[in-house]
């Protein structure tokens, strides 16, 4: 339970960090514009610097979340799947000789019970 609140605290501040990055960039640009008389160019430039810093903060938080999820999965014995199950079934079907499919093809219908019955062709 303590870990859940720790995650809420660390990831819940990302929005605040994004807003602050953008506002700080904008205010630095406006201050420089007032000092140098270059309105509105430096304000726009520093606004985009703030957007870049906000994007970097979001990317950092995303990487931390991915690392935490992977660590939790390892610790709890629930590893992420290493391959796509649909490809494995297509490989098994190709190896058993069912159908005219290549071994690397992927079945577009994920479950066997959802397949449509094969249409019978009228041979004349």
Notes on the structure:
Residues 68-124 are annotated as: Disordered. The chain crosses the membrane at residues 7-28, 40-58. Pfam families: ATPase_gene1 (PF09527). Helices cover 65% and strands 0% of the residues. The protein has helices at 2-11, 14-36, 41-75, 85-96. It is an all-alpha fold and 124 residues long. Helix 2 runs antiparallel to helix 3 (41-75). It is elongated and about 75 Å long.
Q: What count of helical segments does DSSP give?
A: 4
Shape: elongated
Order of helix and strand elements from N to C terminus:
HHHH
What does the radius of gyration come to? 27 Å
Task: Compute the average pLDDT.
Answer: 78
Helix/strand/pairing category: mainly alpha
Q: Main sheet, how many strands, which sense, barrel?
A: none
What is the β-strand count?
Answer: 0
| Strand coverage percent | under 5%
The separation of the N and C termini measures 71 Å
| Count of the domains | 2
Multimeric state of these chains? single chain
Fraction of residues in helices? 55-70%
């Amino acid at each position: 339970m303590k870990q859940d609140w720790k995650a809420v605290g660390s990831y819940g501040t990302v929005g605040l960090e994004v807003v602050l990055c953008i506002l700080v960039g904008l205010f630095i640009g406006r201050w420089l514009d007032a000092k140098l008389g270059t309105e509105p160019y430096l304000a726009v430039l520093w606004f985009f610097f703030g957007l870049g810093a906000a994007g970097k903060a979001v990317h950092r938080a995303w990487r931390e979340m991915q690392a935490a999820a992977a660590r939790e999965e390892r610790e709890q014995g629930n590893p992420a799947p290493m391959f796509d199950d649909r490809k494995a079934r297509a490989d098994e079907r190709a190896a058993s000789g069912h159908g005219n499919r290549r071994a690397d093809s992927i079945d577009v219908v994920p479950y066997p019970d959802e397949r449509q019955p094969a249409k019978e062709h009228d041979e004349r």
